[in-house]
Amino acid sequence: MFLYLVQHGEAKREDEDPARGLTEKGAEDVRKTALFLQSRNLSLSRVFHSSKTRAIQTARIFGDYLKPIAGASESADLAPMDDPAIWSSRIAGMQEDIMLVGHLPFLARLTGLLLCNDTERSLVDFRMGGVVCLARSEGERWAVEWMIVPDIVG
Description:
With 154 residues, the protein is α/β, with parallel strands linked by helices. The protein has helices at 24-39, 53-66, 84-92, 106-116, 150-153, and strands at residues 2-7, 46-49, 72-74, 98-102, 131-136, 142-148.
């Protein structure tokens, strides 16, 4: 199983847009990353995203380029301060490749939990609009497979 973790693209300031949608740069960065992954024939079953506008917009862009089999859907427990143990338990029974579009510190805490059973251990420097791919081996062990950020593909 591959687990693709995505920090949403750059968002507008709250005083500019209370819903905090993506900036033009944020949307363009996400498009660059999604186009790069599309050109590598990345396939996945589903994209899950938080209820925040910036995550919805990011997930929509990835969905447009990667065409996940089961589409994209909003899911609980992906907000910045949510408990990563909930998603760790959910994915334990999954076999299909999925993408989670969310926020920091949630993504960093989930990565720490999966890689070394420590939510406080910061192992990956997430970037807005970037993707971290984790792979689960037969022995249920997780490892970082690769990471891509907009600056590299653009």
